[in-house]
Amino acid sequence: MKLGKVIGNLVSTKKEGNLDGLRILIVTYLDENMIDTKKTAACVDTVNAGDGDIVLLCSSSSARITRMTRNSAVDNITVAIIESISFNNRYISRKENGK
Amino acid sequence: MKLGKVIGNLVSTKKEGNLDGLRILIVTYLDENMIDTKKTAACVDTVNAGDGDIVLLCSSSSARITRMTRNSAVDNITVAIIESISFNNRYISRKENGK
Amino acid sequence: MKLGKVIGNLVSTKKEGNLDGLRILIVTYLDENMIDTKKTAACVDTVNAGDGDIVLLCSSSSARITRMTRNSAVDNITVAIIESISFNNRYISRKENGK
Amino acid sequence: MKLGKVIGNLVSTKKEGNLDGLRILIVTYLDENMIDTKKTAACVDTVNAGDGDIVLLCSSSSARITRMTRNSAVDNITVAIIESISFNNRYISRKENGK
Amino acid sequence: MKLGKVIGNLVSTKKEGNLDGLRILIVTYLDENMIDTKKTAACVDTVNAGDGDIVLLCSSSSARITRMTRNSAVDNITVAIIESISFNNRYISRKENGK
Question: Residue D87 burial by CB count (10 A; 0-12/13-18/19+): exposed, middle or buried?
Answer without folding.
Answer: buried
